[in-house]
TrEMBL record:
GO biological process, one term: proteolysis
Stretch forming the signal peptide: 1-28
Source organism per UniProt: Trapa natans
GO molecular function (one): serine-type carboxypeptidase activity
Highest taxon listed in the record's lineage: Eukaryota
Designated name of the protein: Serine carboxypeptidase-like 18
Pfam families recorded: Peptidase_S10 (PF00450)
UniProt keyword list: Carboxypeptidase, Glycoprotein, Hydrolase, Protease, Signal
């Protein structure tokens, strides 16, 4: 079996080279056997490359593909997206679920060291990590106008990307397919899922063996998500009972579209109470010098700070000054090394400075809610895993549960704890529809906005159980 898969892989490489040389398809791939910072040959299969999408393939989406380290021919295949919009998928690769991660102890400013991630999701699934939309990570376009992307165009491009990728990797066409993502991926991902179902129904080739989707702390509905921050902050005693009661009465539970002077004043007080709280994880320090994830407050104020290399090194010398965002600095140092770009096969001249989260991309948020997409997907036989780090104040578990409730699914298994190593790791509920659709909602106790960053072992266990249809 391994020999036949290797023959297929070599055949695909030959096809790509022929097509690229003829100008028919502007795509490329490279098998990466060594990564700068990692000692020795990689003990897993890593492939990087570009897939051209859009008119004349002028937009080039860069991807990292890691083959399952268990049984690739039988394990699921998953396309993974990162949020932002504009955050590189290297963030997920290094800080969430990829096979390697950075070594921080003793870092001195040289090439960052890498070590194996014991809780990598690629232990049980093959994962395609893709930089999207255009302008994110190492993805680029040959024309300036193609950098202007919105939610619909990005979803269309990703759908095209996936179909082309599978045509170039036919050995995975029969594998179970899942789509996954977190944060802002909650907007494009349900749209892509719907496009895949529609394409399959229209008998588009190739047929995609889609079985479900995974979303973590997903941005889903502008109003529901943002409005839930106030009751969430109250539950965590970040605002007093008195202030919450007065704000709730004055605003009639609506803290976004303020309808009275009193409501404006109370929401202003609430904003003041949580202004110095880390919205990504309420128990961790606010990152004053190394933040690249701007977040809006209830009144639209933005927190936007720049990554700071000197601040990172200073924090290493004094652990009391540590902030999680300092960790992200290493990805910028690593990805901007010439030897790294050579190893990854990044095309020269296509990216000047790599940034983990590119806040300057020409992206238009055209979709304010994807609840209707989720509602339509419940009429299929797919399965969904929606999970929340329960200490996230940016996309709260309260808001996520509220839009799940609105789907009017049948409650199959009520709120109960799930365990790992004999300890409660969070709580879970299961819903079903009359069409065979199932939705598992899971909280990860103690985790923040991107749950695997905070609780890698628990999130690995969660995903492994879900893939195997094992109850939480």
């Amino acid at each position: 079996m391994a020999g036949s898969r290797e023959l297929i892989r070599k055949w695909c490489l030959l096809v790509i080279l022929v097509l690229a040389s003829s100008g028919i398809l502007v795509s490329s791939m490279k098998v990466v056997k060594e990564l700068p910072g990692y000692d020795g040959e990689l003990p897993f299969y890593l492939e990087t490359g570009y897939i051209g999408v859009g008119d004349l393939d002028e937009s080039q989406l860069f991807y990292y593909f890691v083959e399952s380290q268990r049984t690739p021919s039988q394990d699921p295949l998953m396309l993974w997206l990162t949020g932002g919009p504009g955050c590189s998928v290297l963030s997920a690769f290094f800080y969430e679920s990829g096979p390697v991660e950075f070594t921080y102890v003793g870092y001195n400013g040289s090439m960052p060291s890498l070590h194996l991630n014991p809780y990598t999701w690629t232990a049980v699934a093959s994962i395609i990590y893709v930089d999207a939309p255009i302008g994110t990570g190492f993805s680029y376009s040959t024309t300036a106008e193609n950098y202007a992307v919105d939610d619909y165009k990005s979803s269309e491009q990703l759908h095209e990307f996936l179909r082309k990728w599978l045509l170039l990797h036919p050995q995975y066409l029969n594998n179970i397919l899942y789509l996954g993502g977190d944060s802002y991926s909650g907007i494009p991902l349900p749209i892509i899922v719907q496009k895949i179902l529609d394409g399959n129904n229209a008998e588009l080739k190739p047929y995609l063996n889609l079985q479900g989707y995974v979303l973590g702390n997903p941005k889903t509905d502008n109003y529901i998500d943002d409005n839930s921050r106030v009751p969430f902050a109250h539950r965590l005693t970040l605002i007093s009972d008195e202030l919450y009661k007065e704000a709730k009465e004055a605003c009639d539970g609506n803290y976004i579209y303020l309808n009275s002077t009193a409501c404006v004043e109370y929401v202003g007080e609430i904003d003041d109470m949580i202004l110095e709280i880390n919205l990504m994880h309420v128990l961790e320090p606010v990152c004053k010098t190394a933040s690249s994830r701007p977040v809006e407050s209830l009144r639209g104020k933005r927190r936007s700070l720049e990554e700071n290399y000197e601040g990172f090194l200073a924090a290493q010398a004094n652990p009391a000054l540590w902030c999680r965002d300092y960790n992200y600095v290493l990805s910028g140092i690593w990805a901007n090394k010439r030897e790294v770009r050579d190893a990854l096969g990044v095309r020269e001249g296509t990216k000047a400075i790599w940034t983990r989260c590119n806040s300057s991309i020409a992206y238009t948020k055209t979709v304010g809610t994807t609840v209707a997409y989720h509602a339509n997907l419940t009429k299929s036989a797919l399965k969904a895993l929606i999970y929340s780090g329960d200490h996230d104040l940016s996309v709260t578990h309260i808001g996520t549960q509220n839009w799940i409730y609105s789907l009017n699914l049948t409650l199959y298994s009520d709120w109960r704890p799930w365990f790992m190593d004999g300890q409660i790791s969070g709580y879970t509920m299961e819903y079903i529809s009359d069409y065979g659709f199932t939705l598992d909602y899971v909280t990860v106790k103690g985790a923040g906005h991107v749950a695997p960053e905070y609780k890698p072992k628990e999130c690995y266990e969660m995903l492994d159980r879900w893939f195997a249809y094992y109850p939480f």
